[in-house]
Structures
1.
Amino acid sequence: MLLCVSEGEARRIMEEVHEGSCGSHIGERSLAGKILRAGFFWLNLHDDTA
């Protein structure tokens, strides 16, 4: 089951997942995949990570 989050929460989640433990840059597909695997979803997820 995925948790549908608000725009503000989505922005925070993207930043946290994107920075990661080492602060390395990951590609948009990898970022979206990590967010989905963490159990989060929002309608513009793939657009927002592009």
2.
Amino acid sequence: MSQRLLFGLGRVVQAGRVQSMWLTNARVFDATGAAARDGRAILIEDGLIAAEDRAGAVPDDAEVIDLAGRTVLPGLIDAHAHVFATPPTPDDGAEPLWPGTAAHFVAADLRKALRMGFTTLRDVGSYGDDVVTVRQAVRYGAFRGPRLLTCGRIVSATAPGGRFFDGMYREADGPDEVRKAVREQVRRGADFIKVMSTGARSVELEDPHPAQLTGPEVAALVDEAHRLGFRVAAHAEGLAGTELAIRFGADTIEHGMYLNQRPDLLDRMAAAGQVLVPTLSCYYGVASGQWTAPLIRLARHNLAEASRTLLAARAAGVPIALGHDWQPFSDAAVELTRLVEHGMTTHEALLAATATGARALGLDDRLGTVQPGKLADLVVVDGDPLADPALLRERDRIWLVLQRGDPVAGAAFDSSAAIAANARTAADSRSVTHTSALSSAGKPRSGTTETPG
């Protein structure tokens, strides 16, 4: 990495937001469906992509970053994250953790996710209010983290899951109570609504096959959310509840592993533009983790079903978005590699992590592609993730991450930030020398050129 380039990035890092930036000599995967193109340039102005074209003359007043053939992608999107952290448990007799400590661990993991190129996360359920706290902190600039969308409490029927996931669910029974639960999440500042249309395969006391809510309850929830302008994500495992979620218009179907058994439902999803979020990683996690034997067996069965559904949904033309659904959420790129292992092309998997992810969140007018007018959320990869998607799991390969046009993370950013910090330290030293020189008789000491102010 050239010192000239690092100093250029260092200037940008030190200055904060710059009005105009010219990323040149790039290989661009724009996530529009087109093949990646070499020898491209991207003009960023005021946080937006102003142009993407062949590399040419540098625009006036633009900071130039030569990417030396590296690959540029839209910022990565995890459409199914559980944004919580488990702080260490103090030893017996040690000072208990103060309330709010967990939020700092969540913030640390969000920084890691951003460092790995994930500029947007959709939180589909977390314990307590830590995720809301850190979301607000990010929005008000307390620290750099991914754009964070939260659902508040997950709306569920009265069921064992409400006991297992206390602090994550809002149990509601009957259409009117379900509508009230939706309004409560809006009041809490939710960005979308999450509903348990079936039980969960992670709770031994729940059978995930029957519908958990009735048809009138699901209809009321979706109607109320859409009436208020909010999208709906439906946890959907068994086909009875999955069918209700699809029929009544949930915007995204989370999991949906048995849909390969109902091609008619996949056709309906494709026609309506409902997005499937397959979440393969959660089946891997449960199958290999500290879970009860029945849940481990179910996870192995569900992985096989989910793999068949991925292929069937792909063939039916159902939009598919990446959703990790496992911890740590900063390692969400593993889901991309699993989508490829289970039958998607790398191009399709990258679309799932970018353009279709934005569509799942209802943000495709602003995010997800490298096109003029979109927010300049970009990831620069040292290598070609189309040839080797596993590169996206390698920290050193995430060369630069931009959010709204600002360099915020990446290997080059880390080096440039160090240069910028050294420059500030040197400037501070000069300032101290200046002050010291003026401290005697109001005039500079020998060897200085400053004059009294």
